[in-house]
Write a structure and sequence with these properties.
It contains nine helices and ten strands. It has 249 residues and is α/β, with parallel strands linked by helices.
Length: 249
């Protein structure tokens, strides 16, 4: 856990500054921005900062090899990229192969523009009144698992994502409030984590506690320390938890 946190007011301001910073660097509506990040608090700032200025986000598994990164970056047509220092070497190698020169890093690096630099502006370059066609304009390009060949991009429009959030926030499904604490352990690069965990929680005013990776003991500590009310998981996570409980008993 990083210890970093952002209020909703800060999130709004930083989204605007990031959008402004990208605009100053030539990013425009329809450009594709690659996010190669683990689950960290800045994920939402980057995602919404890009889509709020009409950009398209392609979310990438941070565990990908250079070859896998190259495939997705090239296939998605990405021209900008952000990552963290731990993944910078392979991200830059893949970027050089596909010709991406706009690479940013969240953290310290001597060879790359920083996330902080992107935010270092007054927000005045943010393109106000941007025209978006919700049912036609793509907002996100997550990639399939590749079980039938190489992973393929899934073109999600603004309407797709809004409809997904509206459906799952219905009275009979998931309704959070500002008192809810949700554990963000499912990867945000996957549509489950991106829509159901990150987007839905923020839409309903809850708090997200980000876990970069699933570690059973850390997971249980986090549930307790942050008084988590909701968490979403897959079968493998549950199996590991049952195994730990069995061993401990």
């Amino acid at each position: 856990m990083s210890g970093r946190s952002y209020t909703y007011g800060a999130l709004k301001d930083l989204v605007k500054k990031l959008g402004s910073g990208l605009t100053q660097r030539g990013f425009k509506k329809g450009d594709v921005f690659a996010i190669i990040l683990p689950n960290i608090p800045e994920y939402a700032i980057v995602f919404f900062g890009v889509v709020c200025i009409g950009g398209i986000v392609t979310t990438i598994n941070p565990l990908y090899t250079v070859e896998e990164l190259v495939h997705q970056l090239q296939d998605a047509g990405a021209t900008y990229l952000i990552t963290v220092p731990q993944m910078l070497d392979k991200s830059k190698e893949a970027s050089s192969i596909v010709g991406i020169t706009n690479v940013f890093v969240i953290g310290e690096s001597n060879n790359c523009a920083s996330f902080t630099e992107l935010l270092n502006n007054d927000g005045l370059s943010f393109p106000e009144g941007l025209s978006v066609n919700p049912k036609e304009d793509v907002i996100c390009l997550p990639y399939s698992s590749g079980t039938t060949g190489l992973p393929k991009g899934v073109m999600l429009t603004h309407y797709n994502m809004l409809a997904d959030v509206a459906i799952v926030s219905g009275e009979q499904l998931l309704q959070f409030n500002e008192e809810a604490t949700v554990l963000g352990v499912l990867p945000f690069f996957h549509i489950y984590g991106l829509v159901i965990v990150m987007s839905l929680t923020l839409f309903q005013g809850g708090k997200i506690v980000c876990m970069p990776r699933f570690e059973p003991e850390k997971f249980l500590e986090t549930l307790q320390n942050y008084k988590v009310i909701y968490f979403f998981f897959i079968g493998e996570m549950l199996r590991l938890l049952f195994t730990i409980c069995f061993i401990c008993n």
